[in-house]
Amino acid sequence: MTRVLLIGANGFLGAHVKRALTGAAGTSVVTAGRSASCDFALDLVTGGVAGVLAALEQAEPDVVVNCAGKVAGPPDVLAEGNITGPANLVGALLTRGCATRLVHLGSAGEYGRVEVGTPITERTRPCPVGVYGVTKLAGTAVVSAGRAAGLDAVVLRVFNPFGPGSPVGSLPGRLATQLRQAIAEGTDVHLGALDDVRDFVDARDVAEAVLAVCQASTVDTGVLNVASGRATPVRQLVTTLADIAGFTGVVVEQGVGSARSAEVPWHQADISTIGELLGWKPGRDLTTSLTDLWQATT
């Protein structure tokens, strides 16, 4: 039985990861975090290495999955959540000195602006363009340093996750909420520019990738892309969800898109490495994911 300590189980991706791990044969899951609903109290930032080490000693995990982090906020908040927290976790795992695997969720934001038309591999040079991407890349560097020091650690660079439960801070989640309101009130939907192209991946597929890493006997690389492997125009996602919702109004494009996506017009991942090493591939297409998102939206 593999005992997994899940950090960040109350977040969007964390909740999907928890369901995938809980339902997997040969795997038991305990959670750690600031919420009273967690099995173990843990704050990766304020607890320091000593606080994280205490939680590890209590939980005695075979694998630690870190889904915690910050996607928005001022630079100091992003730095704490995406750099300080992972650094404390890596420090505690190295101090503990046992063969505990770390699975850390990174982000496509680490790659930043890339050559349009060339799929992004794990060897593509990261060049983040915003504070979020910079801090996520720094977090990956911390985990990679831990791996170099002997820690069994893997970073999963997750591209644009969506699906049931998508937060309103994401385009799919915000759009679903606005469509509900627009249909009820007979109004139009207003969004930013929709010219970009992204690689959208279902959060449930991400969770299955995490499970695959947890169950693998060895993982011979420190960074793996987790994505659909498809370049999807953002406008296509919007029109597809609008059609699923039965929306007959107008989608008005105003201003610019997300600040986190600024200066990054195109992303598509190459997911061949994770397929070759772990046999993982995404199992849900855009329409299925958006249909499930719509049905889960209240």
From TrEMBL:
The lineage of its organism: Bacteria, Bacillati, Actinomycetota, Actinomycetes, Pseudonocardiales. Signal peptide: none annotated. It comes from Kutzneria viridogrisea. InterPro entries: Epimerase_deHydtase, Lipid_A_modif_metabolic_enz, NAD(P)-bd_dom_sf. Gene3D superfamilies: NAD(P)-binding Rossmann-like Domain (3.40.50.720), UDP-galactose 4-epimerase, domain 1 (3.90.25.10). Residues 4-226 form the NAD-dependent epimerase/dehydratase domain. It comes from the Bacteria. This is Nucleoside-diphosphate-sugar epimerase.
